[in-house]
Amino acid sequence: MHGTAPGSIPPPASLLQVGPDGLFEVGPVSDGLAWLSIGLFVLAALLEWRQRRRAGTSGSLASGASIGKPVRVVAFAAWLVFAAFWLNLVPHFAFVHQSYVEGILSLVAVPASAYVGWLVYSGRDTLFVLTRAVAVMGVVYLPFETIPALSIAGVALPAPRQVLIEHTAVMTAFVMEAVGYTPEMIESSEGYDATFRWLYADGGEEHAIYVTVVLACTGIGSMSIFAGLIAAVRAPLVRKLRALALAIGIIYVLNVLRTSFITIVTGNQYMRWFPEAVLFLFGETNPYRVSFLVSDRIISQVLAVVALIGVTYLVVRQLPELLIVLEDVLYVLTGEEHDLQEVIDLPREPTNLEDRGRPATTASVDTAGGGATEATGGEVGEASDPDGVD
Fold first, then answer.
1. Which 3 state secondary structure label does DSSP give 380?
2. d(C-alpha 6, C-alpha 299), whole Å
3. From its record, what is one biological process in GO terms (predicted)?
4. Closest CA to 231 of 367, 356, 346
């Protein structure tokens, strides 16, 4: 979210400049890198699927099919471009967005993405599951980030981001009204009905504080992560839909509560704690942004990481096939193999764990999208901002 007080409504984050000609900012360069990387991810996924289908393996890694070098090269290129995408955004998250959490995560994503690409190229085939997941994540998220409003045959279609942002603002207003807060909703600098105007009395003077809902406040990023992960693995459709509904539902509710919390705290300046220290920590001078920085950049973002871990655990209980992705992520971070099925208390129901070297329960399913094969034993192998608080 974006927050500011007092003063005019701030521009959205996508318009803030932190480098020449769009470099190191959210804009044409980052959008171009995003579309290029996702296009390569999708191409790699399609080529992998095509090769496995031609080999007659139904996509099963356990069948011994070897992914050809051309497919690996495309996947490697996708991950390298993805690393460049995150590198381009590090200054934005760290200095414009003023988020230590997102700044650190985007910085870590640079070498991690390049390393994943190298592992894929070198023969770690299980990482093609994560490659497919990123492809789906991008297909879900990028339309909201990049597609503008359109007019087709005289019919005006709003930008996807506008629909999502305004819906989030409406639900935030609903929650705030339910607990007794009724700030005025006005038009944001993007032209959306998504800015809350508060009047705050301070020292006998009345100040206007603006809190604006932006795309980062809608939860679409987290939703797209889980959509990609769930879509990438092979499992019965019913369990995949159940896992998706669980993830989307929890993220939606928690996100609206988050935006409501940040907006109320910022508008009423409830968390002007240690203002000198907070302003120094974030390189700020506006004391009215302290409540926003504490409620959003510190409390909400740390709790968001904890919440995502919790949602991941709940989703994995519905869809144990996701363990292969989590184990690969841990391998990338630690350089060691992990067997999470041994440490997580999963429900005792048929699952499809690909090439994991443990007894099958009832079926093995390839994560590349092929069919399941029956087995009775044997081995089987993812709020508003004041001053423009985003």
1. strand
2. 23
3. proteolysis
4. 367
- In the chain, how many domains are there? 1
Compare 355 and 278 and report the one with higher pLDDT: 278
pTM: 0.80
Point out the catalytic residue in the list 52, 217, 289, 297: 217
Torsion sign over Cα 155, 160, 163, 169? negative
Give the domain range for residue 60.
2-148+157-386
| Whether 54 is catalytic | no
- What is the 8-class DSSP label of residue 206? E
Residue 216: DSSP 8-state: G
Alpha-carbon dihedral angle through residues 269, 271, 274, 278, given to the nearest 10 degrees: -80
pLDDT digits (tens, 9 = 90+) for 290-343: 999 999 999 999 999 999 999 999 999 999 999 999 999 999 988 888 888 877
Q: What angle do CA 93, 218, 2 make, to 5 degrees?
A: 50
Q: Distance between CA atoms of 371 and 382, rounded to whole angstroms?
A: 25
Q: Give 127's pLDDT tier (boundaries 50, 70, 90).
A: very high
Lookup result for tokens 């369990």: 239
Catalytic residue among 234, 258, 289, 356: 258
Catalytic status, residue 317: no
Average pLDDT of the residues in 335-353: 69
